[in-house]
Amino acid sequence: MQTRRFAALAGLAAAGVALGVAEIVAILTGATTSPLVSVGGVVIDSVPAGVKDFAVRVFYTYDKLALSIGTIVLLAVFAAVIGILAARRAYIGYIGFALFGLIGILAAMTRHNAPWYAFVPTLVGTVAGAAVLRWLLQHEAGESATEEQRRWFLRTAGYTLLGAVLAGFASRWWSTRRGVEADRATVTLPTVPPNTVAPLPPEADAALPDLAPFVTPNKDFYLIDTALVVPQLTSGDWKLRIHGQVEKEITVTWDELLKRPMIERYITLACVSNEVGGGLVGNAKWQGVRVADLLAEARPKAGADQVVSRSIDGFTAGTPTAVLQDGRDAMLAIAMNGEPLPIEHGFPVRMVVPGLYGYVSATKWLVELELTSFADFDAYWIKRGWAAKGPIKTESRIDTPRDGGSPRAGDVMIAGVAWAQHRGISKVEVQIDQGPWQVATLLPVPSIDTWRQWTLKWSATPGRHRLTVRATDNGGDTQTDAVAPPDPDGATGWHSIEVQVK
């Protein structure tokens, strides 16, 4: 009689082989044809907005890693159960693997821009997994097996599972890096004329410990998107289609894009999921082509009040057409902080629109701009209950001292950042305990599209103190103290911290 634990191990090993083989095949067919990636993508697209928001709150920028681990755990449980059932009735194992294959094939074939051969990795992996399951169960160590037979089975199944997992990870790493890293390394950025570069005031950065630098390094810039695996698109394969309700449909290749007039601007981006005082906001120097220039060539028709930007993986964001034509420096960015876009930040091309939350504007791995209307189309996050137009709210944050910190009595520098992109910050005030609001010193900025550092010298006395900050934009509107969560159009409230002065 076959034991459950050996049969479960056989199921795990067979599933590992199925995924490992599928990942190896996906090297040839493309990373998005992997069953783990395509099924994970369907899960991401299908989960309610509340679940996604919960994942961002709990796991922060590691939300997709948590999803991947959760998917693998569920698959492992499914595989173990299939192995146990197959030990009793072999055909149940084959049915289980067929179900696994069918789900993977449907997920791969229904992804945006899926090639006709997207089913191949899942099919090949499923067949390989089923064959391994059959072979292991034929040699499975049952109750009557000798100790040597048991050890042989454990070694064989264990090494099979380990080899499959290592092969899968190696294949995933190779498929996500092959070609694109090398292609990015060969990109030579066009020279931007001096009159199109926004100079950075030398006093823009106070350079204080724990204070966010005025320019966020690429490696520290927040990452929030819906891509389970970073899309891999070379500059040679990239092209942009502008279509929909336009007088003239346009297709732009990479080489054609680089020949167009470029601008370089410091622009702060913020995620709508950012909590008050959170870190899902960053400032960078972007280089690219104005969206307004491209729209002028396409000539949107009357009533086309929305521009839907679409990623290579199918993600969509809807931006008001009027915003892209109102003179702000909305661009198709090709560079970030003086280097080609990092792959995870959208290489080769992404959208950057000052003044709007990223979910309605900052599409990475951009391949389409479709002119339509808000009445006719709801983009990815709008279908999940978020507001359609997402202008960024006036916000401020205390960076130093840290919440829970213990500065020494005497002069303490309180500092942080405030932002109200495309309106600009005119005043920042700090309150100590329940005392009067004190006006902080504002550092200079290159434009109204960036965050602004602020500082305030405080004569700290021993004891516990509460520090609160609020900002006012150039329109005279002061940040509200009304506390609201990120859903549906951005969090509000004043950022407060507590310190124990020694």
Question: Can you describe what's shown?
Answer:
This protein has helices spanning 4-29, 35-46, 49-59, 63-88, 90-109, 120-138, 147-177, 180-185, 254-258, 291-298, 321-324, and strands spanning 239-244, 250-253, 263-270, 281-290, 306-311, 316-320, 331-336, 339-340, 350-352, 366-372, 395-400, 410-419, 425-432, 437-439, 441-442, 452-460, 463-473, 495-501. Helix 5 (90-109) runs antiparallel to helix 6. It is built from eleven helices and 18 strands. Helices cover 33% and strands 23% of the residues. The chain has a five-stranded mixed β-sheet with strand order 2-1-10-5-6. Strands 3, 4, 7, 8 and 9 form a five-stranded antiparallel β-sheet that branches. Strands 11-12-16-15 form a four-stranded antiparallel β-sheet, with no helix packed on it. The mean pLDDT is 87.
